[in-house]
Backbone:
């Protein structure tokens, strides 16, 4: 029989047991797992009967593997049957182990009691969604830039935006330093690829010119031996290139877009930019309101909830880097940061998300939101469409727990929609 006792605020002890028949399943598993490695005089290796092993070494030889085999399912069932809302990994102890089975205890943190009031009528900052002519032109210039030709510049000095091909060698205290030399390097002036005002000092130089560039390395520069130190670079300008953008005319529009005229193209660009701004404004409004919900939330939140969210964010970040072919360890070296430092930078967002989620879950409870089977089916269809999985196949492989989690997410979404619809713009 399962039992839950309060240890302290938001911390409980769950007592649960496994009967003798279930524990015997674990013992059989442990014997089959280990028998191939057990030798005893008079028996071939792997052929020693279990009873003989237990008589020789004691039953305890199989206890660890037997318990590890039966514990996960027993603990999961106890959590479900008691309805405990666990938010931490359990601290497991064995209370009793005998012929009748095993009695376990699991000490865990649980989701806190939450109180929230006045969640309707929250104020949020107005975000501008109008689009200016400059923004339209900037978008179109970016598209023109994709079709630009690279041409050599021979009749003028280098200017910001040009790409100069350079040879360079750097000196600190009159001595060349490792990593400070390069030949045939293409550098776009204004890209801030190099430190300080290095690129600014090349503007105005002509092809073939020798330029002395003086800079100071930042105090937090990755190479500690150079941090904060002044340096001089000898730079040779090998060539200057620039981008030549195509004219914005009907020919360019018909060749690169689905439209025939510049006016049609600009009208479409404006409509898309307005839509993007409205989406960004809606996202910003929701983020701001979630943060405000967290601020008016009353709850004693266990520290482990924040730590779990930070770890989830870091894992997602790591997976994103690996997907792009960059191991997280290499990334940390590149930015000269530790894993703990990066995780700490995630902390404010993690706190906001945990508090916001708790607030929205409570609002869903106060508003008595219910999720219909039709709404669940619709959400499964949406997920299937985004992931490229057949809807019926996805519905079939989803467990009851996963569908319950989906239902909880939909309640949270309904709560957020309510808060947004009742909010007041300022």
Residues:
């Amino acid at each position: 029989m399962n039992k839950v006792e309060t240890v302290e605020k938001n911390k409980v002890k769950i007592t649960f047991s496994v009967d003798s028949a279930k524990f015997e399943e674990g013992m059989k598993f442990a014997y089959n797992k280990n028998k191939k490695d057990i030798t005893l005089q008079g028996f071939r290796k792997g052929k020693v009967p279990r009873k003989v092993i237990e008589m020789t070494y004691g039953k305890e030889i199989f206890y660890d593997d037997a318990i590890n085999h039966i514990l996960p399912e027993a603990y999961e069932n106890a959590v479900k049957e008691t309805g405990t809302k666990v938010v931490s990994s359990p601290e497991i102890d064995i209370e009793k182990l005998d012929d009748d089975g095993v009695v376990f205890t699991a000490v865990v943190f649980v989701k806190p009691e939450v109180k929230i009031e006045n969640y309707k009528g929250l104020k949020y900052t107005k975000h501008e969604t109008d689009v200016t002519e400059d923004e339209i032109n900037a978008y179109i210039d970016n598209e023109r830039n994709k079709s630009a030709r690279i041409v050599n510049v021979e009749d003028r000095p280098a200017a910001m935006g040009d790409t100069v091909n350079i040879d360079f060698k750097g000196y600190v205290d009159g001595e060349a330093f490792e990593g400070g030399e390069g030949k045939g390097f293409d550098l776009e002036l204004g890209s801030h690829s190099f430190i300080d005002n290095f690129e600014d000092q090349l503007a105005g130089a002509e092809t073939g010119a020798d330029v002395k560039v003086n800079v100071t390395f930042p105090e937090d520069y990755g190479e500690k031996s150079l941090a904060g130190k002044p340096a001089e670079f000898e730079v040779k300008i090998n060539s200057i290139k620039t981008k030549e953008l195509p004219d914005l005319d009907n020919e360019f529009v018909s060749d690169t877009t689905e439209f025939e005229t510049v006016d049609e193209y600009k009208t479409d660009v404006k409509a898309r930019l307005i839509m993007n701004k409205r989406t960004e404004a809606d996202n910003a409004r929701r983020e701001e309101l979630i943060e405000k919900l967290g601020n008016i939330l009353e709850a004693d939140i266990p520290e482990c909830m924040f730590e779990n969210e930070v770890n989830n964010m870091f894992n997602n970040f790591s997976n994103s880097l690996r997907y792009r072919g960059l191991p997280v360890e290499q990334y940390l070296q590149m930015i000269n940061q530790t894993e703990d430092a990066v995780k700490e930078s995630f902390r404010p967002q993690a706190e906001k998300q945990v508090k916001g989620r708790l607030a929205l879950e409570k609002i869903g409870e106060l508003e008595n939101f219910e999720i219909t089977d039709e709404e669940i089916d619709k959400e499964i269809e949406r997920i299937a469409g985004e992931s490229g999985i057949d809807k019926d196949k996805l519905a079939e492989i989803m467990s009851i727990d996963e569908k319950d989690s989906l239902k909880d997410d939909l309640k949270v979404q309904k709560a957020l929609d309510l808060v947004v619809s009742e909010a007041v713009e300022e």
Q: What stands out?
A: The first strand starts at residue 3 and ends at 8. The chain has a mean pLDDT of 93. Residues 271-425 form a domain with the Trigger factor, domain 2 fold (CATH 1.10.3120.10). Residues 262-296 form the longest helix (35 residues).
